Amino acid sequence: MRVGILGTRGIPNHYGGFEQFADYLAEGLVKKGREVFVYNSHNHPYQEKVYKGAQLIHINDPEHKIGTAGQFIYDLNCIRDSRKRKFDILLQLGYTSSSIWSRLMPGSACIVTNMDGLEWKRSKYSKPVQLFLKQAERWAAKSSQHLVSDSIGIQSYLKEKYALKSTYIPYGAEPFKKADQSVLEEFKVQKDQFTLLIARMEPENNVETILKAYDQLESPLPLLVIGRTDNAFGSYLRKSFGANPSIRFLEGIYDFEKLNQLRYFSTLYFHGHSVGGTNPSLLEAMAASSYIIAHDNVFNKAILGEDAEYFKDQQTLFELLKESKAPEKKGKAIANNLQKISSLYSWEQIINSYDDLFANLVGEKG
Fold it and tell me: Cβ distance 257 to 235 under 8 Å?
């Protein structure tokens, strides 16, 4: 089976959730004997033609020259290339800048789209852009042969909105077991003596709400903020909170080992994401034994259940942060979340689910 994966900047991951997902999925499918091709931006720092057995197709990506419009051109270039590859399955991760080209998708391949979250709800977008994203969602939903939902909430939404069935397959993670405190020296923190926030600097991730509540605390532990601040909102956050010595902006960190060490040794992990399905960074925090305070929404609660604390706004978060956390409560929540990772979200299960789906779609299985 020939499987193409598009919709990311490429692997190995140097950007975000879909890239991390493509990294794991491509390797897993290769191990199952599938012939896997992953589209990479020509600007990707990894320039080899093969990665973990997956073949990389480097495609011209003008985003660095012309901005957001370049994403649409990059996706167009990927889709045009896919027409000559004779893929059995073409997996599309997201739809924001690719669904306008849906009529150009190769007719010989089965088009499977992971619909991601509700992109049009993201507050960083203007009203006209939100309207476009709603239409893009419709194009992707209607033009794909099969849809994948990474959360039950997204699956229900697609059924109600478009009367379309989708296969529920969440993201994956693996329990983290290689704790090494020496990594903490680089960041000038100590075990259980710092808190952690990992997110893109976007309004819907409630970064500002978290920082405002933290800014109110008297003599708080250091808060490490990991995420690039080279956009307008990120610059605003640095300007607003950078003077607080307890709030440390570390920019983007893409060393998975370092991130896991920080998650493991933090005393508290903030997850403010409010739009989307099964967020990869949330699963990774659970897998690294983080104690989590999450934004109160259906997506986060579907994953964490009672094994986290929740905030709705700055004031509720501030009140939570003033409370002392009982060790037994933290220990139980961490243990329960680790069990969920092993039983529901292991990468082996996720890869098996995708492989079974692809096999069924191309007629390998009854």
Answer: no
Q: 273 φ, ψ to 5°?
A: -60, 135
Per-residue pLDDT of the chain (366 residues; tens, 9 = 90+): 999 999 999 999 887 778 989 999 999 999 999 999 999 999 999 999 999 999 999 999 999 899 888 999 999 999 999 999 999 999 999 888 888 999 999 999 999 999 876 666 666 677 888 888 888 888 888 999 999 998 888 898 899 999 999 999 988 998 998 889 999 999 999 999 999 999 989 888 999 999 999 999 988 999 999 999 999 999 999 999 999 999 999 999 988 899 999 999 999 999 999 876 677 889 999 999 999 999 999 889 989 999 999 999 999 999 999 987 778 899 999 999 999 999 999 999 999 999 999 999 998 764
The reported pTM is 0.81
Give kind and range of the element (H or E) at residue 197. strand 195-198
Q: Say whether the peptide bond before residue 45 is cis (omega within 30 degrees of 0).
A: no
User: Residue 326 burial by CB count (10 A; 0-12/13-18/19+): exposed, middle or buried?
Assistant: exposed
- Three-state DSSP state, 271: strand
| Total residue count of the chain as it appears in this document | 366
The Cα–Cα gap between 91 and 5 comes to: 5
* Beta strand 54-59 pairing with 167-168: unpaired
Amino acid at site 64: H
Q: Which SS3 state, helix, strand or coil, does residue 357 take?
A: helix
Q: Scan for tokens 């009140």, then name that residue.
A: 319
CA distance 189 to 176: 20
Helix 256-265 / helix 280-287 crossing angle, nearest 10 deg: 60
**Taking Cα atoms as reference points, which of 4, 7, 98, 8 lies closest to residue 46?**
8
Whose structure tokens read 């992953």? 38
202's tokens: 């976007």
Stated as kind and residue range, the H or E segment containing 146 is strand 146-149
Evaluate whether 90 touches 105 at the Cβ level (below 8 Å). yes
Please give the Cα distance from 297 to 98 (Å, whole number). Answer: 28
